[in-house]
Design goal:
The complex is a heterodimer of chains A (95) and B (493). By secondary structure, chain A is mainly α. Chain A starts with a helix and ends in a 7-residue tail after the last strand. With 493 residues, chain B is an alpha/beta fold. Chain B is 37% helix and 13% strand. Chain B contains 16 helices and 11 strands. The radius of gyration of chain B is 21 Å and the shape is globular. Chain B starts with a helix and ends in an 11-residue tail after the last helix. The chains are: A mainly alpha (95), B alpha/beta (493). At the A-B interface, helix 1 and helix 2 of A face helix 10, helix 11, helix 12, helix 13 and helix 14 of B.
Chain lengths: 95, 493
């Protein structure tokens, strides 16, 4: 499988990364080189094999459904590029 | 004062308790050494005031006879660990001057036990790299040089700053993280010890996430014993990481010097691969002999899916990274590059904030998870991962206690030598280490000798889940047999 310029544009948009026209060919080449490398997985017989979901055989613990943290709006906002009156500030989202 | 920086961590601990020197003296000696080693670019942020304040507290405790396990031990911290009030960037521009209002669990364990923080250490951006050349703060220069050459070499990566700082005596030990080899490969390149514990042994809470099913924290130090001392403090249960196991942490130091008689050591035939220098094969044989001499039994084993670990990793890790790194959107913290609307703000911010390797991996990850490709790539890779883990389980079922392999397919290479057009060339560095992350196992890299250019080479021991103790015992045998590697004289200061 080999990806073309249109696919690079599509996945860059899905990943929300702006890509300049001049970078597309270069990126396609690098991505194709990696995809070429992983191609060898096709040789493996995975018939009847369960995909891994947890690397250590452990049951995820449950905890009581209670509030254990919070009330730190100041701390949450302290690294914000822009904030106002306890909110993050972003460009208009809904017209 | 320079003698205080060349002590092992255990020697420093014992000397502090015997009041041969003070914790402030230890901290000052290291801060002075760091000041003179700026050209290595190992530290990207020094915290001298914090170091002196923590050391003064340590001296008070020692005086009062109330010393904690790591009292006064001066450490460096990989920049992937969130440190409260101290800039944490994962060496990416996208985090800007992020100052966490919280402390990672692993580092908080170290401070709880009395350790002293010297500063933050350089790493590959978001831990994505094997040479520390993808850092937004520029590459780290290894303290090692080839015989008769002053060409700059890489310390390995992604924990390149940690490895260089420990090898150059700029700290007594350091924290690292290992997703595909990021502790063991740089440890091998710089002639020091590094261990990646079993997945779930250390909490991942407060560590900048790369690939959550593979990431694990671990220590770097100059001896096996020193890494055992550090791991005991770093490990332990944390309810804030649901994959962190609730299991008692053994006193790993007690495993040092324990007999390895009768232990069964597996030698996997699939690790004999083409293109690896003969001296690495020879060193591997030498390591086998050392363990045999110490009373271990050597058996050949087969791990048939070894060659598929690296390609499977380059699907699983980027897939998880593309999801984890979605949080860097220019809204809540870090860099923001404005746009006409919110989508353009995201796209501009992420284009300016991420470096080339990180973008590449996010794009690959996005592709393999996208509709129509998920089954062919991601699902298949997760099935292959099951097979890789099964290989190890079969070997352990045959009674194998640990597996001995080379740590890296070469010694350290030059800065800029492998940054060519094909990213896969760099990825091949992790061919011996990545299987371990895929299977969630513990593994230690121990220096075992020098190559023809007088650069260090390491051996790797892979253990059963949560049996780090056996690795410390066996690693100590290799260390004793090889003799301590003489670290380079400080040409940089």
């Amino acid at each position: 499988m080999s990806i073309d310029a249109a696919t690079v544009r599509r996945i860059a948009h899905l990943a929300r990364i702006k890509v300049e026209d001049g970078e597309i060919d270069h990126l396609a080449g690098e991505i194709n080189s990696i995809l070429g490398f992983v191609e060898q997985l096709k040789e493996v017989n995975v018939e009847g094999v369960e995909p891994m979901t947890s690397v250590t055989p452990m049951k995820l613990p449950l905890r009581k459904d209670v509030v254990t943290d919070g009330g730190d709006a100041k701390k949450v906002l302290m690294n914000a590029p822009q904030s106002e009156e306890g909110f993050f500030l972003v460009p208009k989202v809904v017209e | 004062m320079s003698k205080l920086t060349s002590l092992t961590l255990a020697e420093a601990r014992d000397g502090l308790r015997a009041k041969q020197f003070s914790a402030v003296e230890i901290a000052d000696a290291h801060l002075a050494a760091i000041e003179k080693a700026k050209s290595l670019n190992a530290y990207i942020l020094e915290t001298p005031e914090k170091a002196r304040a923590m050391a003064a507290e340590s001296d008070k405790r020692i005086k009062a006879g109330d010393a904690r396990p790591l009292e006064g031990i001066a450490l460096g911290v990989k920049d992937l660990f969130a440190t409260e009030g101290v800039r944490t960037t994962a060496c990416s521009k996208i985090l800007g001057n992020f100052e966490p209002p919280y402390e990672s669990t692993v580092t908080s364990h170290l401070w709880r036990d009395g350790a002293v923080m010297l500063g933050k250490l350089n790493n590959d951006e978001f831990a994505m790299g094997s040479s520390n050349e993808t850092s937004a703060f520029g590459p780290v220069v290894s303290p090692w040089q080839r015989k008769g050459s002053n060409a700059k070499l890489v310390p390995g990566g992604s924990s390149g700053g940690s490895a260089a700082a420990v090898a150059a005596n700029l700290c007594l030990g350091a924290t690292g993280t290992d997703t595909g080899g990021s502790i063991r490969q740089p440890a091998a390149f710089t002639g020091i010890v590094g261990i990646k514990p079993t997945y779930g042994r250390c909490s991942r809470w407060g560590i900048v996430a790369f690939a959550s099913s593979l990431d694990q924290a671990g220590p770097f130090a100059r001896t096996v014993q020193d890494t055992a001392i550090l791991l005991r403090s770093m490990a332990g249960h944390d309810p804030k990481d649901s994959t962190c196991i609730d299991k008692e942490v053994p006193d790993y130091e007690k495993a040092i010097g324990k007999s390895v008689k009768g232990m069964k050591i597996g030698i996997p035939k699939e690790y004999r691969i083409d293109g690896v220098p003969a001296e690495i094969g020879k060193l591997w044989e030498q390591g086998t002999e050392w363990l045999k001499k110490a009373g271990a039994e050597i058996v050949e084993i087969s791990l048939p899916h070894t060659k598929y670990a690296l390609p499977a990793y380059y699907i699983v890790a980027p897939a998880e990274a593309s999801s984890n790194l979605a949080r860097y959107d220019g809204v809540r913290y870090g860099l923001r590059v404005p746009g006409r609307d919110i989508i353009e703000l995201y796209e501009n911010t992420r284009a300016a904030g991420f470096g080339a390797e990180v973008k590449r991996r996010i794009l690959i990850g996005t592709y393999v998870l996208s509709a129509g490709y998920y089954d062919a790539y991601y699902l298949r890779a997760q099935k292959v991962r099951t097979l890789i883990k099964r290989d190890f389980e079969e070997a352990f079922k045959q009674g194998v206690n640990a597996i001995l392999t080379p740590a890296t397919p070469s010694s350290a290479f030059g800065v800029g030598e492998k940054s060519g057009a094909d990213p896969v060339e760099m990825y091949l560095n992790d061919v011996f280490t990545v299987t371990v992350n895929m299977a969630g196992l513990p593994a230690i890299a121990v220096p075992a000798g020098l190559d023809g250019s007088a650069l260090p080479l390491g051996l790797q021991l892979i253990g059963r889940p949560f049996d780090e103790e056996t690795l410390f015992s066996l690693g100590h045998v290799i260390e004793q047999s090889a003799g301590r590697i003489k670290l380079p004289d400080p040409w940089w200061s």
